[in-house]
Amino acid sequence: xxxxxxxxxxxxxxxxxxxxxxxxxxxxxxxxxxxxxxxxxxxxxxxxxxxxxxxxxxxxxxxxxxxxxxxxxxxxxxxxxxxxxxxxxxxxxxxxxxxxxxxxxxxxxxxxxxxxxxxxxxxxxxxxxxxxxxxxxxxxxxxxxxxxxxxxxxxxxxxxxxxxxxxxxxxxxxxxxxxxxxxxxxxxxxxxxxxxxxxxxxxxxxxxxxxxxxxxxxxxxxxxxxxxxxxxxxxxxxxxxxxxxxxxxxxxxxxxxxxxxxxxxxxxxxxxxxxxxxxxxxxxxxxxxxxxxxxxxxxxxxxxxxxxxxxxxxxxxxxxxxxxxxxxxxxxxxxxxxxxxxxxxxxxxxxxxxxxxxxxxxxxxxxxxxxxxxxxxxxxxxxxxxxxxxxxxxxxxxxxxxxxxxxxxxxxxxxxxxxxxxxxxxxxxxxxxxxxxxxxxxxxxxxxxxxxxxxxxxxxxxxxxxxxxxxxxxxxxxxxxxxxxxxxxxxxxxxxx
Length: 497
Known about the structure:
21 helices; 2 domains; six-stranded parallel β-sheet
């Protein structure tokens, strides 16, 4: 019995596949891991496919994790593996969970929901020659029909899971059109100096554009949010410090790291400071989940950087997105970060643009709020994408807003904005933050915006000019700050996309 697990993501952290690898190894099952760190627009050449097929052909099972943006390239790879080998190919991850019927058009089986226990059972059944088609948590395609098994309950005790598998000298990397075994140096190149992990799973919110919206429907009343014990989390970080001496920073990629109670944060900060002592960053912050006491403890423990999702400040859009957060909560959290600006690096704020349901008044509301955010800050602007399984996807399908699933969803780059005048204003306001607020409000005049929105050519010119100013300003800051990797990454993504 041999299992190959493939991670198609640009980043090689791949927490889920790495934990599944550890789960299988605990059962004495040989696992080969292959990482394909390319952008989701990357198309495999025939030589690429031949190399990967040759690598996996002696496997009994090939498991591939994917999100919706990886669908096209994973489908291409799966077709080659199934056509040229006898491998049993399984998909897992968010996309097959959200779009099971469509996924089964390309693969032998899909894992629905969390995969550690389901995948272990499937592999053991195949190993023992037992009937696999009753495996809970899996759907199968058999002789033209779909076999649908019930979803397996969520894993309540996250401490029951082993740590992610970082035996890098047993893992393979597809880079620069060749496959090689990881070395400490190549791992450092792809991780930089940062180790990413999760202290919890799930999210208590149900934002209409997010996969957690879909997962709450899947699991019903079950508590989606679960947290690991502190000893289990610290044990993982200690092990990584020993295995990967180049790691100098930790990153917690939880959906909502700070939703934990103040006492939990206090215990974490004290233990982390004593045992790990490295700077760390937190990715998932929602307004209303943090206060002065929490932030003071985290900063004293080594917190460097925060990122918060604002998305929109319009009440109409907040209802549409099912975000039960108020503008005063957002303002209060931004002011809190400002009070710690000497101890934290520049905060990042996320906004979602290009919604077909957003009115001019909605856009002006968010822009007027954006104009008041005190510098310094960084912005992440995202084009709304309708991901399968979410409430917004269902509405967009019903209203005919998705005409080509491939173009409108799977191949859409959510960082590429529509070239509109209102989108241009985000870049303009960001680059010209020194302007008095009364001047900004004059520019955000509804009649002017309506005039420009009716003239797409002018909007496109405005967008390109403002984006150009932004790129020059950010590029110069990166050069003077020594962050040349950001510039290289920007050109790499544009070249691929």
